[in-house]
Design goal:
The protein has 11 helices and 13 strands. The protein is of the alpha/beta class and 347 residues long. The protein has 2 domains: 121 residues, Aspartate Aminotransferase, domain 1; 213 residues, Aspartate Aminotransferase, domain 2 (3-Layer(aba) Sandwich), CATH 3.40.640.10. The protein has a 7-stranded mixed beta sheet with strand order 2-8-7-6-5-3-4, with helices on both faces. The chain has a 4-stranded antiparallel beta sheet with strand order 9-10-13-12, with helices on one face. β9 and β10 form a beta hairpin. α1 runs antiparallel to α8, α2 runs parallel beside α8 and α9 runs parallel beside α11. The longest helix has 24 residues. The chain is globular and about 60 Å long.
Length: 347
């Protein structure tokens, strides 16, 4: 059985270079750390979400009633599972596994819509059951790094269907061309966003969702009081400014270049799956389990692929880092894949 609760942080250990977690390595930046440190002075009072909710709403051009603040994107998936009663939920895979895990935990029937390598891991609209009244997909999709066209996503909407689009990595793509965050006209659309990836705030647990006001209110009713901490609210305000969004765009352009450098440095026997657009790439290598173990001995942590439905032990997800880091990784990967093992790699 696939372990839906396995995530990249489980691959980490002291001394390993982290290519397993898709979080910007040099974040949070200094200015954001200053904001977070200052927010501690207000921690004696209960959190006030109003300024953060207004800031997020303004950034996306939406009414505040269409904004749900949450303790990370993962909380939104739990709220969806708790607040809604789908007759049939369809989760597009391979993808982030927490949405399905939350739906299963709540006892909802789930069908997996399995995308295929031979199709470039692109969305197949015909594979989504027409009777599904809840559909979940990621864009860009973790772990394939594929960006689905917004027209295809819009075509998934139906009257009576809630369409959940996980855009946790949307701001890693320059210009956010795949985002449907502003598409208020799409019925039943709930867009989930996160500050984790670009701003390096995984430990803060901060995210939000955008959707129709009645749906947002229904999800909010399933939250406890004060679900988002004061520092997290401060981060939401700070990261919603025009200056912060411009910085995120610059980081995304860097990621584009760095990803090209990573792909260009890989040995010929490595297959790059799909057409990666985000801050990570999905690789297929021969003898993946052995390769991952040997990379670990050489000081590299990469994300195993076989805990994603539809992938195998030969799949490895690798985070995009600065070119000098990627070059060193590619060199070690080539050595591991060499037909002549080094003495330390002999069992």
């Amino acid at each position: 059985m696939t372990d839906l609760h396995h995530h990249g942080d489980a691959e980490l250990a002291p001394g390993l270079v982290d290519l397993a977690v898709n979080v910007r390595a040099d974040a949070p930046p200094a200015w954001l750390r200053t904001v977070l440190h200052a927010s501690i002075d207000a921690a004696a009072a209960y959190p006030d979400p109003a300024p953060a909710r207004a800031a997020v709403a303004a950034a996306h051009g939406r009414p505040v009633e269409e904004v749900l603040l949450a303790a990370g994107a993962a909380e939104v998936f739990v709220l969806v599972a708790r607040a809604l009663r789908p007759r049939l939920a369809a989760v597009v895979h391979p993808s982030f596994t927490e949405p399905e895990a939350a739906l299963q935990a709540a006892g909802h029937p789930v069908t997996r819509v399995q995308l295929r390598a031979e199709d470039g891991w692109r969305l197949d609209l015909s594979a989504v059951p027409e009777e599904a009244d809840l559909v979940v997909l990621g864009n860009p999709t973790n772990p394939t790094s594929v960006l689905h066209p917004t027209a295809d996503i819009a075509d998934l909407a139906r009257p009576g269907r809630v369409l959940v689009v996980d855009e946790a990595f949307a701001d890693t793509v320059p210009g956010e061309p795949g985002s449907v965050a502003a598409r208020r006209e799409i019925p039943g659309l709930l867009v989930v966003r996160s500050l984790t990836k670009t701003w390096g705030l995984a430990g803060l647990r901060v995210g939000y969702a955008l959707g129709p006001a009645p749906l947002v209110a229904r999800l909010a009713a399933a939250q406890p009081h004060w679900p988002v901490s004061t520092p997290a609210l401060a981060a939401l305000v700070a990261c919603s400014t025009a200056a912060a969004r411009a910085e995120a765009e610059a980081v995304a352009r860097d990621v584009d270049r760095w990803r090209a450098a990573l792909i260009g440095s890989l040995p010929p026997s490595v297959v790059v799956e799909g057409s990666p657009r985000s801050s990570f790439v999905l690789l297929r290598v021969p003898g993946g389990a052995r390769v991952r173990a040997q990379l670990r001995r050489r000081g590299w942590a990469v994300r195993r692929g076989d805990t994603f439905p539809g992938l195998t032990a030969d799949h490895l997800r690798v985070a995009v880092r600065r070119p000098e880091v990627s070059s060193a990784f590619a060199s070690d990967l080539a050595a591991v894949l060499s037909p002549v093992p080094t003495p330390e790699e002999v069992p």
